[in-house]
Amino acid sequence: MKLQDVGEFGLIELLRAKLQPVDQSVVVGIGDDAAVLSYDAAMNVLLTTDMLVEGIHFREDTIDFQSLGWKSMAASISDIAAMGGIPKHAVISLAIPPSYEILKLEQLYEGIAEIGRLHHTCIIGGDITKTNGPLVISVTLTGQTEQGQALLRSGAQVGDLVFVTNCIGGSAAGLACLQSDRRTLLTPDQQIKLLHFHQRPQPQVQAGRILAGSGFCSSCNDISDGLASELHEIASASGVSIRIEESRLPIDSSVRNFARIDGSDPVNWALYGGEDYQLTGTINPLGYASVLTEFQLHGLEMSIVGRVVQGTGVLLERLSGETIPLAASGYNHFTT
Amino acid sequence: MKLQDVGEFGLIELLRAKLQPVDQSVVVGIGDDAAVLSYDAAMNVLLTTDMLVEGIHFREDTIDFQSLGWKSMAASISDIAAMGGIPKHAVISLAIPPSYEILKLEQLYEGIAEIGRLHHTCIIGGDITKTNGPLVISVTLTGQTEQGQALLRSGAQVGDLVFVTNCIGGSAAGLACLQSDRRTLLTPDQQIKLLHFHQRPQPQVQAGRILAGSGFCSSCNDISDGLASELHEIASASGVSIRIEESRLPIDSSVRNFARIDGSDPVNWALYGGEDYQLTGTINPLGYASVLTEFQLHGLEMSIVGRVVQGTGVLLERLSGETIPLAASGYNHFTT
């Protein structure tokens, strides 16, 4: 049996079965954005890790190394944000081809340091080795949440509202813009805005903190693999169905504009593009108004895109009024 | 400038310069076996990470995948042991060629789980991705020590004794045995003993705990790159010189025996072989007897191999009585 036969998630299940049960210090283990660990009475420690491979996750023709450093850290910070946590300390390992240009690695670290400063996140160690293959970047990040406040995937309740922070689909639009000759039809400002969505995503740490502190947020994921995939994870972990409306998806006008120029579907970018690093989840209707007010006080946006209902899976109400099942497949490394 | 021009340690310095200063939550950052983090008043959190690349760190013809899993975790557990800590929670990421045999990865995880059970260390997450290059394994492990008790590299004092736990040189002997036709001159039991030194190293968590609890251990490293390299790190970090005697190096009789058969130098294996995952460090002479007693109560061995003196660098007194400077070079990925 080869890896390509079972896929990424199939392999995770196979390997997970090999491991021993965890002890009581593990509040949440494998299967959420980050693990939740109980090290002392007041605060939980969060732990998340991501691996990026050149040629698979990034290519030099669509991202510069400083942005790559930013984005590598952003993905991990976003996992902590999705738990409602504060990012704290990172270790970064690199496997590097011997003939690699050092300047690129220095630029990578400039981007890592740039977003680290913004989020008060320290790089405190790592490992460097050579490889005969492509550049591999591994980022592991700790975080903290108040005891019992971590936002999980599994708490969505029938009747809860489904939210999305700020806008989605921008990262896919930025990538399409980079790869399309039609980008010259945009002004430089419009191009830069789309590029930033793709290359400099903003992890939503403050939104996660507000949601966790409210006591009304019943589930949360960050949008790394696309909204459809994230909502499927929440529905499955919570044992509920989620129903969203196409008309309510928060898609920036710059994204809609370029989709029109490019002949692309902005809703497809929003549902399946991924790498937006916004948060999605569910919130008790009783808490919605107060959370929205606090979001607005901090210059954050939140859209209600649907509702939690009984059943399984995720449904999409199209603009036409037709309701269809929404496939999960955002991005699965081994089967797409 | 290429990576091969500056080497692993040169690159680390270049990249480190890009990072912001750490905040007061970081007790020890880059530059020891593990980082030390202050998350609450009683206990410090330790964090260490290692990356292994197929063809660089391991090859299928010298290690089976279950042993590889064991050894990958052993390296990280050993880093926590070298800080005097208790290993706690691990995240493991894999970059996998699509045509890789799943059975190998399952065996890898069996080995990871096996040593994890022994040390009560839970695997709580990870990331899996494909790669067009070799298999890459990244292990990140947390640990805990009592506040202020972490064993650093930087505390060696003139007059302290230099210790080594158990025996060294066994991993290099085991590798040589695997690669030598002369291994058939050993009994099966002798071969298995040497193979175990190489494939199933035993991280010295209990030794580290005794040393940290004693209050007399002034510095500590685990022997991953060879005794010479580890002692150079301690001498440099502490601003002292270390003088060791060849006649005192603890080398198992099975290692000496195979060295004779193989025409190899067992002292070379002990000083430069690495991957023994024993501990070396310095101890105040006032505490030596009590620590030794506690070691013996737990079936552990400790040898005094030398002494801390004024000056810089590491000196070796040969059997002949001649004293020579001991080069640091154990294993540097980019320059050997």
TrEMBL record, chains A, B:
Residues engaged in binding ATP: 109, 126-127, 153, 224
Residues binding Mg(2+) 1: 49-50, 127
Catalytic activity: thiamine phosphate + ATP = thiamine diphosphate + ADP
Catalytic activity, EC: 2.7.4.16
One Gene Ontology term of the molecular function aspect: magnesium ion binding
Main EC class the enzyme belongs to: transferase
Gene Ontology terms describing biological process: thiamine biosynthetic process; thiamine diphosphate biosynthetic process
Listed pathway(s): Cofactor biosynthesis; thiamine diphosphate biosynthesis; thiamine diphosphate from thiamine phosphate: step 1/1
UniProtKB keywords: ATP-binding, Kinase, Magnesium, Metal-binding, Nucleotide-binding, Thiamine biosynthesis, Transferase
PANTHER family the record matches: THIAMINE-MONOPHOSPHATE KINASE
Name of the protein in question: Thiamine-monophosphate kinase
Lineage: Bacteria, Bacillati, Bacillota, Bacilli, Bacillales
